[in-house]
User: Fold these one by one.
Assistant:
Number 1:
Amino acid sequence: MYLASVERPSAGAADRTKRLAGTVLALGTVSLITDVSSEMVSAILPLYLVAGLGLGPAVYGLIDGLYTGATALLRLAGGYLADRARRRKTVAAAGYGLSAFMKFGLLAAGGSVPWLSAVIVADRAGKGLRTAPRDALITLATPDGQLGRAFGVHRAMDTTGAFAGPLVALAVLAASGQAYDAVFVVSGCVAMIGVLTLVLFVRDHRGPRPPSNTVSLVAAAGLLRRRPVRALLAGAVLLGLSTIGDGFVYLLLQRRESLATGWFPLLAVGTSLAYLILAVPLGNLADRVGRAPVVLGGYAALGAVYLLLDSGLAGPLVVIFILLLYGVYYAATDGVLMALAGPLLPAELRTTGLALVQTGQALAYLASSVLFGLAWQWWGATGAIRAVTVLAVLTLSGSALLLLRFARES
């Protein structure tokens, strides 16, 4: 009932499917290269901050929250700018470039927590700028019925980079005598290759210029007057409140299993492998049975991860099962949520609308990460994980009511 202005495949659907392959593969290649770079840093950052610099859980929780959530409002600004100027590729390239440059900024920050926080915020500002324009380019080039598949293919390529990144970090650490600075340098160089690939091989989706009153701050704010958009945003925020971040999950596993420092990056590899294998099948499943149930199933898998972390069960098989479930969570939620949102949004405000959902999740993640770090500081790891498990059950229940009702209405 709110979908009249959404782009849909026409008689040229076959041609658009061909363009879909080019758009998705080009953007997937950029994401693959960029994720090699970003996951090199992400895989060692928790250990670098906690073990290398001696930061406590509360301080790490603040920095981890900043890593994803502090630039949330910039996502909205970037999304609106991309729609207004009709230059989604340009805005995405600016975001990729800023993140690449900030990998070298980690070298200059050294052990200073304020400077590290500033560099991480700037790095995530780049991610905030690029994510919505990139996802909008995918939705604008893809028929509605194939969005789950398109995002599944893109996320599978993205996750190939996430799978390789920790392995590259492990190799660099081994070759450099456990020098974190060497990882930051190599990561920055790889990220620059990703920016160059975007500039040379990704085509923008300009389309006809919309009437000026359809891309304005008033029109953007008007998205919130649409009931399905409000329901989706509220559900996404609730689900974001139950997400504590990869670093905490891996630190809990590392401490419980007494894993050696050199093996820590392999935890991210295990998650990425599961995500890589499942991204396309779960994207196809979402197109067939509905995207809301698949998203909710992914968060149920995350709840199962928390239960296992609190169960006291240990051993290699338990670790493998936790990483598998964590990969299921990512494969069922990351791209599928964007595929769920895309058809709700008018083409001229597609980037702004996707950024709105991403902003809500990012702000929720910022709150949950900071609160989890404080809970760990006050109650210990066991008390913190039990608290977030209870929260996950509550938020999943509330989100299920919102998203399933939304799915029936739309």
Number 2:
Amino acid sequence: MRPNSGESTIEYAARLRDKALSCNFLDIDDRILEDLVQTTSNSEFVRKVLHKQWPLQEALSDAQIHEDTSVQIGAMGHQ
């Protein structure tokens, strides 16, 4: 799977979880995080996940903060 254009990391992770439930993965969260790291274009996200060895929830929390901040910065530029 790949993230859809305009899809947030949280939304993509939810799609991955839905798909992973039909598989026999030992640790679904690890597989989801692995896919996120392999498919994201955000190199800073990958660096943080690998360096800090974050579990999925920590990585998703950071991704959400980054995406929310990007939206706010974009909105400020349009004012």
